[in-house]
Task: structure prediction
Amino acid sequence: MSILNSTAIMISTMIFLTGCAGMKVVNPSEQNPEAGTKMVDWSGGKPKIVETYSCSHGTGKNRITALGKTEIEAREEALAKCRDRTVVSFCSADKITCVKN
Result:
């Protein structure tokens, strides 16, 4: 009887440990929907695919996002979108966060 109990405990432990391996808690509001996005750059005369940057300002319903080939482009676009949405601007370049896609 003890062999069956120890085997059952060992199998349960292995299933528990392997079942939780690789799990990650993700906050949906912090996910980057633009991850993996690329753009075509025509600046050199020939098209080439470049990585992009996503910048966001605000949270929740007031979140403004912008996409650009460089971080500066994306940051300026996010700031411009923020200023376009409001009459009294509370937009600040310091509050913009950017990530590489």
In short: The mean pLDDT is 79. Residues 12 and 82 are 53 Å apart (CA to CA).
